């Protein structure tokens, strides 16, 4: 019992150690659990709201010291888990929304906006970034990159190392590649490892046999 208590305390201290908040602005709202999330806000009237059940290790950056960004929102839903995600918003009024029960692997990058401008010959801006919307029960694998103005529907998987640069509309798909595309439809996924899932289903067969 004592050893379990010591481990629990040590684990909490470890998570708090990696938590960091830099809030350089006014009227910014930050709601987050005691977890390994680093938040850097440079600007005003921004919101970062992480559900109390989420375990979201990573970094959220809104604006920069020499380029403040205002009126942005980051929403992370219930039971979301990240092993290392970098979220960046650099344009006013942009939003990143992550649904419930999502699972993100290591070195995932979500860039809601570019950091430099692309123009046509009439000086019209071509690369405005406004949103990233990630649905419910999404599994994003290691080293994936999610670009600006991207929608990922519910119950999808983003393959390892994929570069996602457009909106997708069909749920229950595997999306993979560079640039990413739908490579398999009509799938679902479970957080259990394959052998754990097989063991569970075998027990159910025996139970109902």
What is the topological layout?
Elements: H1 2-17, E1 20-24, E2 29-31, E3 37-42, E4 47-50, E5 55-62, E6 73-76, E7 81-89, E8 95-98, E9 103-104, E10 108-111, E11 131-134, E12 139-140, E13 145-146, E14 150-152, E15 157-158, E16 163-164, E17 173-177, E18 180-185, H2 194-208
Parallel strand pairs: 1-3, 2-4, 3-5, 4-6, 5-7, 6-8, 7-9, 7-10, 8-11, 9-12, 10-13, 11-14, 12-15, 13-16, 15-17
Antiparallel strand pairs: 17-18
What CATH architecture do you see? 3 Solenoid
**CATH class division:** Mainly Beta
Catalogue the unreliable spans.
12-17
Query: What is the N-to-C succession of helices and strands?
Result: HEEEEEEEEEEEEEEEEEEH
Q: How far apart, in Å, are the first and last alpha carbons?
A: 39 Å
CATH topology: UDP N-Acetylglucosamine Acyltransferase, domain 1
* Structural class computed from helices and strand pairing: alpha/beta
Report the helical percentage: 10-25%
Mean pLDDT: 90
Shape: globular
Q: Considering the protein shown, what is the CATH homologous superfamily? A: Hexapeptide repeat proteins
**Approximate strand percentage:** 35-45%
How would you describe the oligomerization state of the chains in this entry?
single chain
Number of strands: 18
């Amino acid at each position: 019992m004592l050893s379990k208590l010591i481990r629990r305390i040590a684990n909490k201290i470890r998570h708090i150690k990696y938590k960091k908040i830099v809030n350089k602005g006014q009227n910014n709202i930050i709601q987050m659990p005691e977890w390994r999330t680093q938040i850097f806000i440079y600007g005003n009237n921004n919101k970062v709201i992480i559900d109390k059940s989420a375990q979201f290790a990573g970094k959220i950056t809104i604006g920069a010291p020499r380029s403040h960004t205002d009126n942005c929102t980051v929403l992370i839903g219930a039971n979301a888990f990240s092993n290392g995600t970098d979220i960046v918003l650099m344009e006013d009024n942009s939003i990143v929304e992550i649904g419930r029960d999502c699972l993100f692997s290591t070195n995932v990058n979500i860039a809601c906006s570019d950091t430099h401008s692309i123009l046509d010959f009439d000086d019209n801006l071509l690369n405005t970034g406004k949103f990233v919307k990630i649905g419910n029960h999404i599994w994003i694998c290691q080293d994936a990159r999610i670009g600006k103005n991207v929608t990922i529907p519910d119950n999808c998987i983003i393959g390892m190392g994929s570069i996602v640069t457009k909106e997708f509309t069909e749920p229950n798909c595997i999306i993979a590649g560079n640039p990413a595309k739908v490579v398999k439809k009509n799938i679902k996924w479970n957080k259990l490892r394959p052998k754990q899932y097989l063991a569970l289903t075998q027990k159910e067969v025996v139970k109902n046999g």
